[in-house]
Amino acid sequence: MTSSADLTIKIFADGADKAGILEYYAKPFISGFTTNPTLMRKAGIDNYERFAHDILAAIPDRPISFEVFADEFDEMERQAERIATWGEHVYVKIPVTNTRAESSAPLVQRLAARGVKLNVTALTTVDQVRTVSAALAAGPSSYISVFAGRVADTGRDPIPLMVDALAVMAPYPQLELIWASPRELLNIVQADAIGCHIITVTNDILAKLPLIGKDLDAYSLDTVRMFRTDAVKAGFTIETGVESTI
Q1: I want to staple 79 with a disulfide (CB 3.0 to 4.6 A). Which of 68, 94, 101, 156 is the partner?
Q2: What is residue 91's predicted lDDT score, i.e. its pLDDT?
Q3: Domains of the chain, start order
């Protein structure tokens, strides 16, 4: 791969900072957007619906996922139905379980049967992918978000899991697999290589996209120059002719 232009995977910008969202909306290589309550809290959002409608007014033509935040399934369902009315391109994020580890699959199946576009999130196992795929089978276009980055955080290679997830989802052409929570730019290349449909990427990693295919000798020189520049700016010196006391 010589540049980011060689990527075939769809890139969704992941965040809740409006300025950052609009910056990447202007870039044609961003195919959609996702957010979650944690990102919104970090961004200082204090009114969920107002934020959502503000973003949707600015971005009317690309898929955007907004997450329910209830823990009881009846309230999740009410919130999901409400969020689904916000726009044609809205996908409702439903966690794979509630905080008591109770599966959301029955709720997912009901919502999918009613035509709600879903993004089932926080999956980390192939068994979860299998259960959720079956629940979404009769529904419309939907996403399954496997948190490959969190799997990697446990010391496990997420690639075999993601390959298996793609195989499980293959009979359901309306479903797309999201590689969620990437930790580095390499994850975009890895996800693209296995044929993953979508990857969600935060702004700090998106900023590194121009590095794909960069000449390594040139990158080495850039690094040496960085060290030199920072040493000069810091005014570092080492005394000469003085015996060290270290």
Answers
A1: 68
A2: 98
A3: 4-212 (3.20.20.70)
